Amino acid sequence: MALTGPRAQDREEEERDAMASGTVGMVGLGNMGGRMARRLTAAGITVVGHDPAPGRAEAAGAEPAADPAEVARRAEVILLSLPDSHVVEPVVRALLPAAKPGTVVVDLSTASPASTTELHAEAEAVGVRYLDAGISGGAAAAEKGTLTIMAGGDAEALAEIGWVFEPIAAQVHHMGGAGAGHTAKLLNNFLNAVSLAASAEVMVAGRRAGLDLIQLLEVINSSSGVNFATLNRFPSIVRGDYLEGGLTSRLMTKDVALYLELVGRLGVPSLNSAGPLASFGLAENLGYGDQISNRVVDAIGDAAGGVRVSDSGNQRTEG
What DSSP string runs through 167-192? Predict the structure, then answer.
């Protein structure tokens, strides 16, 4: 519930005081972490950053730290932007012994909710508050500061660090207890994978059928087949802009695998996962694994005999 009146003013004053004195740590300064760090520093917040790739902290405007433990010693709030739980776990276990009691650790990674729940308990045991906070919106939203954050963990801790989210997110949702944020993130990412893979297949089929793809998208986007990919991805892709810089096909495959792990534990059958697994697996096998997941349309086009959906790119030549 939103606060109003004097209580709201008190909360705003507390957040301004925290922002004036607080330092934010960032572990992981790659595609998403670097963009978020730049947003924070542009807002006047001191950021201490660590990334195994030399120079990334400085490029993001952060003060470099030698390792996660140094980040923990210097920051009151620590953000993690890492590939998966296999990377998150050792990082968290390295920084927890150095963290001050009351520190808030926010895992912005797409991670296994089971692993996340264990890390919540380990953090609590040493007086550190842990939030799992999935993010959505991709590189473009990170650049503009309009991410959506879905968080699990202590609601009070989440409210206390609103000043950290202000420069990077347009929406912050508290989803429930430990693991709830990462659960919501996996559910969302699965739908993203399904819609992107299915829309890519449809675009290739539309091209082979000789349809005008811009017109086809206009029809789909005013009809029942409309989805995020048809609204926000393919209008650019068919004009030759793949919106580079976002989630890769390799990471998309990882997210679908995490979703399968989740629904398996929940006892929910997954009848719709084969499509995105096949599509993004194909993209990996054809050499697109480390490129933006939008390139799945080229992988499907390759399998269809060399079809390209872009009007400005290389299109299939009839023999």
Answer: TTEEEEEEEESTTHHHHHHHHHHHHH
∠ CA 128-30-164, rounded to 5°: 45
Contact call for residues 27 and 82 (beta carbons, < 8 A): yes
Distances (CA, A) of 43 to 36, 48, 165: 11, 14, 11
Contact criterion met (CB below 8 Å) for 78 and 27: yes
Distance (Å, rounded) from C-alpha 155 to C-alpha 178? Answer: 11
185 is catalytic: yes
DSSP codes of every residue in 195-221: HHHHHHHHHHHHHHTT--HHHHHHHHT
pLDDT digits (tens, 9 = 90+) for 122-156: 999 999 999 999 999 998 899 999 999 999 999 99
CB 59 within 8 A of CB 31: no
CA pair distance 198, 276, nearest whole angstrom: 8
- Whole-number Å distance between alpha carbons of 105 and 102: 10
**If residue 42 lies in a helix (H) or strand (E), which one and from where to where?**
helix 33-42
Q: Residues 210-233, buried b or exposed e (16+ Cβ, 10 A)? A: eeebeebbeebeeeeeebebbeeb
243-302 pLDDT, tens digit per residue, is: 988 899 999 999 999 999 999 999 999 999 999 999 999 999 999 999 999 999 999 999
Query: Could you give the CA distance from residue 229 to residue 192 in angstroms, rounded to a whole number?
Result: 8
